[in-house]
Amino acid sequence: MGGVDQTIPVDELAAVADAVAQEAAAHVRRRRPELFGATPGHGQSSEIGAHDSSVADPVSTKSTETDPVTVADTETERLIRELLHRARPGDEVLGEEDGGSRTVPSGVRWVVDPIDGTVNFMYGVPAYAVSIAAQIDGRSVAGVVVDVARKVTYGATLGGGAWVSDGDGTRQPLRANPVDRTELALVATGFGYDAERRRAQGKIVAELLPRVRDVRRIGAAALDLCMVASGAVDAHYEHGLSPWDWAAGGLIAAEAGAVVQTPPPDSRADEGHVTVAVAPGIADEFLSLLDELGARDPLG
């Protein structure tokens, strides 16, 4: 990943990211039963929309009817922005819900996803995360991803390695799997919300599946990337991710030794660039396979 400019307060940024992410995750845990009447892991689709009359409609949509945003998403991003402003008042913030400039600034920019895996959050599937990264010149230098339901935290600093904590404060180092054959790789992926892009992605998966051990679709890209870092999967690829999807998780995977390729820092999801994280022992073979399948080309 290269060296770190010693004038950049990377440890300070990492501490801010961790503290803010923990507060945000606690808020998300509280809001799920309040909004949907169930604890994580016990939601049902029939409960969506069941909420106290004093609470605004908990679900709206973004790009398509299948691309939801909840009041918890917007509340949590506002909380994150407020906490970041208190800690680092001069920094810019790019967030999934409340936006921000995609132009890469000269100073620190925080890249925030308040709930990565909103559909899982809605249905009570326990796989959704808070993701916060600090970037300098469009490059992530500190990042934290909190697996909200499991209360597991992943983090990394540029050049400082990656770690995981299960909530007791003890940090364990992360390392990608030593797998050396792509045919034995467990691969995570995700799909866009646009129907045409889904068709293209489905064709790629159909060709990929006979060439690897198996495929997983978790539904939260930040967690997919952290799973590469922890060895829970051997590779992850996905088209059309936005910076808030990969800014923290991509750094964590890279600092755990994975080979990581991300879109340009000012890219848009509709451009369809691919994000890849893969265990080093199969990186060349897996990337060649993606090239063969046309999976490293943008899917606009």
From TrEMBL:
Task: Give the reaction(s) catalysed.
Answer: a myo-inositol phosphate + H2O = myo-inositol + phosphate
Region spans: Disordered: 35-75
Sorted alphabetically, the keyword list is: Hydrolase, Magnesium, Metal-binding
Q: What Enzyme Commission number does this protein have?
A: 3.1.3.25
- Which GO MF terms does the UniProt record name? inositol monophosphate 1-phosphatase activity; metal ion binding
Tell me which Gene Ontology terms the entry assigns under biological process: inositol metabolic process; phosphatidylinositol phosphate biosynthetic process; signal transduction
Recorded superkingdom: Bacteria
Q: Name one Pfam family in it.
A: Inositol_P
Q: Which residues bind Mg(2+)?
A: 96, 113, 115-116, 245
Q: Which cofactor does it need?
A: Mg(2+)
InterPro entries xref list = IMPase (IPR033942), Inositol_monoP_metal-BS (IPR020583), Inositol_monophosphatase-like (IPR000760), Inositol_monophosphatase_CS (IPR020550)
Q: State the similarity comment.
A: Belongs to the inositol monophosphatase superfamily.
Matching PANTHER family: INOSITOL MONOPHOSPHATASE, INOSITOL-1-MONOPHOSPHATASE-RELATED
**Name by which UniProt lists this protein:** Inositol-1-monophosphatase
The organism named in the record is: Gordonia jinghuaiqii
